[in-house]
Amino acid sequence: MDFTTIFGLFYTKYRGEETPPDSTDPEWKIAVRNYNSSLDRLERYDDTRWDFMKTSLQASTQTSPVLDRTLTTNDASFVAPTNMLYPGGLWWKINLSNKRSAPYRVYKPEDVGILSQNSTYGYFLGDFQNGYTFYINPTVISSENGYGLDYIYYKKLTRLNPTTETGTSIIAPAASEFFACFLAAQRFLDSRNFPAYQIMKRDSEEALKMMKLQNNSGDYYATSLVQDAGPGWGF
């Protein structure tokens, strides 16, 4: 679904008009900014780890700065992709035949101290604003030189540019009702229409609750999300 579609759904709720204005109208830029605000709410809703935000180091398309996805002898730290919002719970080594190791655990930094120095583990330091660095133990041995590195993480959602957005950008794969109601709520708040604001705000939050229920229910072949046992990061 592209931004034009969401804009039309929002405008119908806000103005009750069949035909929304085009991208030259001031409502367009306001809607783009409010859409970006809705992503802040979505990313941090009830500490939910959305499936559509889950990705991996090897799947990252980042080109600048260049990502280090290869193990080099004695390496122990790796700068994470700049779009990382939260760490995931698993990581792998990939040998020269492109075969993955069994998954290793990603631990919270404060729990690393209780682990044996002879065990294999990883952890992240940093935050989503300043960036993350991934640390592994033990350091890379010579026989693993040239191996690949991969780990799960949750990516930031893509913000739109209010000045250049033409409406063709594909929006985040969340419920359209959430976006439309969130955008309408913000405009009703701007116009001091508090009863309408409360209704739209309630409906946007109800859409988020349903999204969370579906996200955490799993698929027909996996009825619940896999959780890390013990002190590691949630997967």
Instruction: Report helical residue fraction.
Output: 25-40%
**End-to-end CA span:** 27 Å
Widest beta sheet: strand line-up? 1-7-3-4-5-6-2
Radius of gyration: 21 Å
- How does the overall form come out from the CA principal axes? elongated
What is the H/E order?
Answer: HHEEEEEEEHH
List keywords for this structure.
235 residues; alpha+beta; 2 domains; seven-stranded mixed sheet; 4 helices; 7 strands; 30% helix; elongated; disordered C terminus
Give a quick rundown of the structure:
This protein is an alpha+beta fold.
Description of the structure:
By secondary structure, the protein is α+β, with helices and mostly antiparallel strands. It has two domains: 3-50 and 159-217; 52-155, no CATH class. It is 30% helix and 18% strand. The chain has helices at residues 3-15, 26-43, 176-190, 194-217, and strands at residues 54-56, 77-79, 84-94, 104-107, 121-127, 131-137, 148-155. The chain has a seven-stranded mixed beta sheet with strand order 1-7-3-4-5-6-2, with no helix packed on it. A hairpin with a 3-residue loop joins strand 5 and strand 6. It is elongated, with a radius of gyration of 21 Å. 26% of the residues are buried. Mean pLDDT is 92; it is low at 223-235.
What is this structure's SSE topology?
Elements: H1 3-15, H2 26-43, E1 54-56, E2 77-79, E3 84-94, E4 104-107, E5 121-127, E6 131-137, E7 148-155, H3 176-190, H4 194-217
Parallel strand pairs: 4-5
Antiparallel strand pairs: 1-7, 2-6, 3-4, 3-7, 5-6
Helix pairs in contact: 1-3, 2-3, 3-4
